[in-house]
Amino acid sequence: MGEVQDAGGGVTILGLLVQRSVRLVSGVAVVLAVGAVGCVSGPRFHRVPAPLDAAMLYSWLTQQQEVTGLLGNQENDDFSGVYPNAMAAICFIHEGDPARAEKIFQFFDAQLAREYQGPHVGFHQFWSARTGAVHADTDRWIGDNAWLLIALNYYHRETGTKRFETLAQRIASGLISLQDSDGGIFSGYNVAGLMESKSTEGNLDCYAALVDYPRERARVHHWLTNEMWVAETQRFRMGSTVDESALDGSSWSVGALGPSCSGTLAYAEAHFLTTDRSRHTKQELLGFSDFIGKERIWLEGTGQMIVAYKVAGMSSKAERHLTELQKAVIWSRRFKGACGLPCFTSDPDWKGAAEKIFVPAQTWALFALWGFNPMETPDQVGMKEGDRN
């Protein structure tokens, strides 16, 4: 069960229910309030189910944006990442609200000269959402930069404008400058210099981002399919230095490379599918862990798998996991009438990761509800209709 807060003596949006009705939206049970009575004084919490409702999830996302243009990674938190903000920008564009995305792009455009001077180029991973200050000790990771380019590409396609074109070009040139002779792109820079490992996740991001650079993109594809793909087990290695696989090697390979990689979803089911109880809602649900051996459910990654299922034409599995995801939705403690998903169901890697709404989990849940693949490129055929299993 989720929680909703009355912040100061009024009736909460979905506070005191006298009736509930349930209807199916895309196969997901959504609880609708049809009556509310009474008045509550003081900050109290009402334990009523929070729905997996696209409008309410999107409402939280819009309210999470600070005056800098950035969103904190999780609710009531100033810590802000490039990747979560790129994901939020894609959601804003999808919903016909490009002005919100432009605030994010304007922020990074203003940092371009500083971040792309000298031999170590690329945006640092983390910033302050409230002040805009950079966490200068964090990595310049290719994945984050590639996702910002994916968001810019989507913006340019949808709006038809060339605004922020220089920003997109500089990000692309920075990624290409890290491409090795075998086609793989090095992971970026840390405080010590070049990170000489190559990540499957990061290179899938680059493949989806470098749509305007077909030669370099083809080389990334060659590295992924010839160096990282393990045909015997239908999986991608985590990277050049780690033979084990991660969940996003399955989900994002389908998102970026298309349905031809859908065989790897069976590997994900065999090695990452798990049952866990949400620390916050206390409900048990089925979902996907992030790494082999973990019992927690990675809610962001489960959203990624739902998108992958839809790309692969496995709609019944997608709807089944959307229904399960409903059990982990929580009410916002900051914004009335808004709700969403934390990063994990339990066993958090950082404070609040199992209790606070998390931008990447929110965005992937929205993509899952919308049937939208943010990694889709012009050479893909798009979401498939029908249900293969």
Question: Would you write up a description of this structure?
Answer:
It is a single chain. With 389 residues, the protein is of the alpha+beta class. It has a single domain, classed as Glycosyltransferase (Alpha/alpha barrel). 39% of the residues lie in helices and 13% in strands. The protein is built from 12 helices and 15 strands. It has helices at 54-64, 82-94, 98-115, 142-159, 165-176, 200-209, 214-228, 247-257, 264-272, 299-311, 315-325, 359-370, and strands at 4-6, 20-25, 28-33, 44-46, 79-81, 126-128, 140-141, 188-190, 193-195, 229-230, 235-236, 273-277, 284-288, 330-331, 339-340. A 3-stranded antiparallel sheet has the order 7-8-9. Strands 1-4 form a two-stranded antiparallel ribbon. Helix 2 (82-94) runs parallel beside helix 4 (142-159) and helix 6 (200-209) runs antiparallel to helix 7 (214-228). The radius of gyration is 21 Å and the shape is globular.
